[in-house]
Amino acid sequence: MTNQAGKDNKPKPSFRKSQLLRGLYALGSLLILLAVWQLLFALLKLPAFILPSPKMVWDKFMIILLDGTWWHHLSWTLLEIFLGLLIGSLSAMLIGYGLSKVPALERLMAPFLVGSSSLPMVAVAPLLIIWFGAGLGSKVLICALTVFFPVLVNVLVGLRETPRELHELMRSLNASPWQRLSLLEFPAALPVLLGGLRVGTTLSVIGAIVGELVSSDRGLGFLINVGRGQFDTALVFVAVLSLIFMASVLYYGVLLLERRALAWQTWRKDSL
To answer: If we measure between CA atoms, which residue out of 29, 26, 25, 34 comes closest to residue 237?
Structure first.
């Protein structure tokens, strides 16, 4: 008993400390990557249009940062991502909840949903741009469709995992549909739902870029096309690294939201 109590009383690492360690690991990985990149550039001695040095990429970034080009295209891509993520996630939640209440409809729609989710967005994007134009709407739609399916699947899985005994308890208490949703179904599905949102967040970046690469005059995908056409590989590197940074920030933002939203689970585990 004493050993067990001693184990339970051991101080746990704080959230800030774990985040600091994670940041240090990320910084170390970045430094290793830059060192390997610079070493390859020095040893291979390839032309800059094939493999630019880290300094060339940094110089190009500073040029387009100071003249406002980077901010302009980054903000446009972020707008597409946020709108697509919002529309795709909300529609997936609503449709997923409706399908969970009508099992026959879910089984009827399952082949269509599976088939649609297996289509590569690169193949569908040109059609959507032809149908809806090359403006903001088609990019948001591509992004929303990319997010929709993983979030929908996680909504269905999360709602199925709600214990049947708790459903019976809510019925015995004459709970309204809204009370069942807000007090039982949504909290029970939240862990799986947030996991799907994490996946959807990273996929939303891919969806936005696919649309911009197919047809666009703004955004980081447009910068990639410009750099490719002009053999300006440093510009391509700047756009790609910006996308990686943006996807990482969005991912860890959802991770922080998940930690705060599920803080009650940590409290419950600690109290048991």
So the answer is: 34
